[in-house]
From TrEMBL:
<dbReference type="InterPro" id="IPR050923">
    <property type="entry name" value="Cell_Proc_Reg/RNA_Proc"/>
</dbReference>
<dbReference type="InterPro" id="IPR008984">
    <property type="entry name" value="SMAD_FHA_dom_sf"/>
</dbReference>
<protein>
    <submittedName>
        <fullName>FHA domain-containing protein</fullName>
    </submittedName>
</protein>
<feature type="domain" description="FHA">
    <location>
        <begin position="239"/>
        <end position="289"/>
    </location>
</feature>
<dbReference type="Pfam" id="PF00498">
    <property type="entry name" value="FHA"/>
</dbReference>
<dbReference type="InterPro" id="IPR000253">
    <property type="entry name" value="FHA_dom"/>
</dbReference>
<dbReference type="InterPro" id="IPR027417">
    <property type="entry name" value="P-loop_NTPase"/>
</dbReference>
Length: 570
């Protein structure tokens, strides 16, 4: 519960169908937050008005046209309740992505979540006051998860197979609310962008330092370090970089770049980069930025936009001018995760199965997408002789094996790579049936070592052939981790056990055994015990419905895959 409701700072009163919070400690009112919430009354927020009620300054919440969930709950079914939960999650995500607001100022109570007549849209109650729990978003999300999971498990008329599954996902802290929202069918990017737009048209009420009108926006050069796209010249304030030429000042036509990805802005004569809620992140010197929060930059900083790196170059005259300004404290710059590239070596993950048809490629591509979304720089390589993974990718490119075999350095390889949220060597087309028509084990090993030594990626995922050859022997020994994918039948079980016994000494402690296409109602392959009693199964991944219609981005919504991704060393 929001602490401000418990410490005596406000007193709640009903006002007909509406309700009021009387302000007993008005100093805790945050005017900037109130202005945002009041200005956005027609979106996700219950209409909120500041004024006098019965002689005391108050926050008055008007509920006309809406009904609290507590009133609806006894009358609605499973699907209707799940829609309310999904819409509430979307509202929380929007608040998370607004600079001026805090998600733990949302009141978590079914009596304060309102639904429009006809079940169209949710309104949340936002309390714009200083809270003793400020800064503890994790506590808010934990309480929210408990509230909804408890209702889904214990309320008879909304309880069902779907709510049971969603409740289990809510109880898993490894599944973020963003992934939960996507799993429930929500449009994540729409809510992120909605939150980023809140309050843009109003004054924050915070005084800024006077700006020297004679200092114009300097021309900043972003020098591409990868050689894959031209340099960028930033020549205007609020310079937006993205994939869409229609809404960006500079368009980078790569799939991993979001439609609007980031912008470079002038703030009080200093220059900052802001991530605009991009899918694959914006980084400065290896640190991922929190969306829509400014990160001040300097000459020779390295900016990463999705998969492209740029060296930031300021004009000499501006460098001299910056020396006269007050320094910005480094620890005041918000980052999501700090990655010290110079201290980290690229990790190698082998995804293998003892027999074909277990779905290891589905697992490998799903992990690639999930980890890339978390800011990990991933390269996916499939080494099977006959490859067919294009069905899981948006861009269905095929290349000749001779193109990859001829690559002598990373620049050669870069020219053939495909780009999604992660990079990948496209599906390889063999020229014939002989061994010489494909890529040899030795050539694959050379390519893998070349990538590992380059330091360009955090993780290389190698999706292997279901055999033991020189390449796979190398990978078993060299990999930081091995994911062994199997199914429940006796054939797959027998092969998995033999593989486990064979590598026991070479790969001790680094193999993760996963059952794919798992059916909890089927009897496991090992017979008497009804389980895989000779190998330690770590994860169970249930059947993917409509697999032929899925892309690897859809696989990111699978809670079992998300949990597995959390075990990967990066």
């Amino acid at each position: 519960m929001n602490d401000i409701l418990m410490d005596g700072s406000v007193t709640e009163q009903t006002a007909g169908q509406d309700f009021v919070y009387l302000l007993n400690n008005e100093e805790k009112l945050i005017s900037g937050e109130y202005e945002v919430v009041a200005a956005e009354e027609n979106s996700i927020f219950l209409k909120c008005m500041y004024g006098s009620y019965n002689g005391q300054n108050s926050l008055y919440y008007a509920t006309e046209g809406y009904v609290p969930v507590t009133t609806l709950l006894p009358m609605i079914n499973e699907s209707a309740f799940l829609k309310i939960v999904k819409d509430f999650l979307g509202a929380v995500i929007a608040v998370k992505n607004c600079v001026e607001l805090k998600e733990n100022h949302i009141v978590i109570s079914l009596s304060k979540i309102y639904v429009k007549h006809g079940m169209e849209g949710v309104k949340i109650t936002y309390l714009p006051m200083v809270d003793g729990n400020d800064g503890k978003a994790d506590d808010f999300e934990m309480e929210m998860r408990k509230v909804f999971a408890n209702i889904m498990r214990n309320t008879e008329n909304v309880r069902g197979e779907k709510t049971f599954s969603v409740a289990n996902s809510f109880s898993d802290p490894n599944i973020s609310i963003e992934i939960l929202y996507s799993m429930m069918g929500g449009n994540l990017m729409n809510m992120i962008k909605a939150g980023m737009g809140f309050g843009r048209s109003i004054s924050s009420g915070i005084e800024k330092a006077p700006v020297n009108a004679e200092v114009a926006m300097p021309k900043i050069r972003l020098e591409n370090l990868n050689g894959n796209i031209p340099d960028i010249v930033v020549d205007s304030e609020d310079y937006v970089i993205g994939r869409s030429p229609d809404i960006s000042d500079c368009a980078i036509l790569e799939a991993a770049v979001s439609r609007i990805h980031c912008k470079v802005s002038k703030i009080d004569d200093k220059i900052a980069v802001l991530d605009l809620g991009s899918a694959n992140g914006t980084y400065v010197n290896g640190s991922r930025l929190i969306p829509n929060q400014p990160h001040f930059i300097s000459d020779n900083d390295v900016l990463r936009i999705a998969n492209s790196d740029f060296l930031i170059k300021f004009p000499e005259e501006y460098i001299e001018y910056m020396k006269t300004l007050e320094p910005v404290a480094v620890n005041s710059m918000p980052v999501e995760r700090e990655i010290r590239r110079e201290e980290k070596r690229t990790k190698l993950l082998m995804v293998h199965s003892a027999s074909g048809g277990t779905g290891k490629t589905t697992i490998a591509l799903g992990l690639s997408n999930i980890l890339a979304f978390e800011g990990v720089r991933v390269l996916y390589i499939c080494t099977s002789s006959y490859q067919s993974f294009n069905n899981l990718l948006q861009d269905k490119v095929r290349i000749k094996s001779s193109n990859i075999a001829a690559c002598e350095n990373l620049d050669d390889l870069n020219g053939y790579l495909g780009h999604a949220a992660f990079d990948y060597i496209p599906e390889i087309r063999r020229n014939g049936l002989s061994d010489k028509s494909g890529i040899s084990s030795r050539r694959y090993i050379n390519i893998i070592e070349m990538v590992l030594n380059s330091g360009r990626y955090d993780l290389v995922i190698v999706d292997t052939e279901s055999t033991i050859n020189n390449l796979n022997r190398y990978l078993i020994e060299k990999s930081d981790q091995v994911i062994m994918v199997t199914k429940q039948s006796g054939i797959e079980y027998g092969g998995t056990v033999r593989f486990a016994e064979m590598i026991r000494n070479v790969a001790a402690g680094k193999v993760i055994y996963v059952i794919n296409d798992y059916d909890k109602y089927s009897f496991d392959a090992s017979g008497e015990s009804g389980g895989f009693d000779r190998v330690d199964i770590s994860d169970y991944i249930e059947h993917f419905r409509n697999i032929d219609a899925l892309y690897c981005t859809d696989l990111s919504k699978c809670p079992e895959l998300v949990k597995l991704a959390g075990k990967i060393i990066v």
